Amino acid sequence: MNYKIDEAIAAFPIETDANGSLAEKNSYGNGHINDTFLLRCKTPDNKETKFILQRMNHDIFKNPPQLMENVVHITEYLRNMITSRGGDPDRETLNVLKTRQGADYYQDSCGNYWRVFPFIERSFCLEKVENQNNFYDCGVAFGNFQKMLADFPVETLHETIVNFHNTPSRFQDFQKAVKEGYKDRAALAGSEIAFALDRESDTAVLTGLLAEGKLPLRVTHNDTKLNNILFDDDTKKALCILDLDTIMPGLSLYDFGDSIRFGASTGAEDETDLDKVELDLTLFEIFTKGYLKGCAGSLTETEIRMLPMGAKLMTYECGIRFLGDFLTGDHYFKIHRTNHNLDRARTQFKLVADMEKKWAEMAAIVEKAASGR
Fold it and tell me: How far apart are CA 18 and CA 300, in angstroms?
């Protein structure tokens, strides 16, 4: 990778020792898109501070300045909201560290874009649901995120990835991948391709309701996986929402659905044994209750009724994205083994099929949770 990490570090007010060195500068996390580093340094009075440094992937996010404008506007808005209700804005939202020149990001001499967030101490992330409480708290956190941003002027946000959760558009991209992708890979994925094509009629359900004015356009996170929440070390409660790159205008159903896709599955996102993958209805119910509690009455009746479709479509959409990337050479999602994106697609489609079997139960759970029973 041709980038200038030391040049980027020097652009931010981060303390180094007399030799210009940091105590630690290591890769951090397991994100699919950006390059993330943990910086640990000592201040002149010998106190330790930590920062998260990220190189934004400008192949995926075509306009990093607009992306950062979204992030700054949202985090400043949240900071004011959290402060007004007596919370801790240094821990309950991300905060952008400005460069030495007062900018929100730095572009290095190779054209790469960098940003820094102060590290939030005494916190942890979860890669999978460990107990029912933390998944309930996850639901409350993302619901509360939706509630806090209910009055944010959604029209001021940029689309950081055009048509990100536009499922009909994603389906067209998938059709193109089938047509133009590697034929040997398509031969490996014949049943998965057929599964995806058979569900074309589902793809426009939510966008159709939006176009008809039956669903409201909202500020949405659009990547509400469990591992995009920080939990507090002491209370074990959800603390802070991470990864705001895809925050933009969208549907609340996108955020609900992606959380279910990732958190209510009994298998890992890249599980190779599909017998281990199904929708856990107990976790679906727990998250639904938490999400509706966090939203605190801010959702419409139609939004609530369509929550199961949000879960199904977000899972299906992710599946066709994984599969399309596999067919065209794995250019979007980072892979760590042969056929990794195909494995990911298979888990999503298995989960979609299981949702279809449990559709009536999902709808009943939503109705019960919405009524407070």
Answer: 58
